[in-house]
Amino acid sequence: MTTPKSLFHAEMVNENGVDGIAYVKNDGLKVSLSSPTSNAPGTNPEELLGLSLSTCLNATLRSVLNARGKQNKSRVEVHVDFVKETTKPGYYFDVLATAQIDGLEFEEVEKLVGVAERLCPVSKLLMGSETVIVKAIEGYTN
Fold it and tell me: In sequence order, which residues have a C-beta less than 8 Å from that of residue 23 and are 6 or more positions away?
């Protein structure tokens, strides 16, 4: 069996947890980090996860729509809660991703969102998690 060739490769670095800077190597994106439990400026893992999932899922949804000859607008919104475990030490992310498509019947929106969820590389990583939900919602809001 041969290993598939990578279409894109990225290397990210974090040296200080949620205090400091994380960056993409080779002069890429740099972000200031802060703990979600502090008021310090900066982003945190749950925000980065939400951005990653919303971007990837909507890009995949756009691709699914385009493949079907549709130019409808779409929107993906991700809510991530940082939650303390109640039965053991630690924390987890409770994630809800909602997707909307303008101008389609809800049943079709549900079907297309399901296809996008199965194809999106980020949602594939999260699939099977008990704390991640992706769902279509009715209506379309900007």
Answer: 12, 13, 29, 30, 31
Residue 20, sorted as left (phi over 0), alpha (psi -120 to 50) or beta, turns out to be: left
Decide: helix, strand or coil at residue 14: strand
d(CA 114, CA 135): 8
- Nearest partner of 13 among 34, 36, 29, judged by Cα: 29
- Give the percent of the chain with pLDDT over 70: 99
Question: How confident is residue 63, by pLDDT bands cut at 50, 70 and 90?
Answer: very high
What does 60-95 look like in DSSP terms, one character per residue?
Answer: HHHHHHHHTT----EEEEEEEEEEE-SSSSSEEEEE
pTM for the predicted model, two decimal places: 0.91
90, two tokens: 């630690």
Strand partners, 47: none
Gyration radius (Cα) of the chain, Å: 17
Q: Are 83 and 100 in contact (CB under 8 A)?
A: no
* C-alpha span between 26 and 97 (Å, rounded): 31
Question: In the β-sheet with 74-84, what is the strand arrangement from edge to edge?
Answer: 74-84, 91-101, 132-136
In the three-class reduction of DSSP (H, G, I as helix; E, B as strand; rest coil), residue 122 is classed as helix
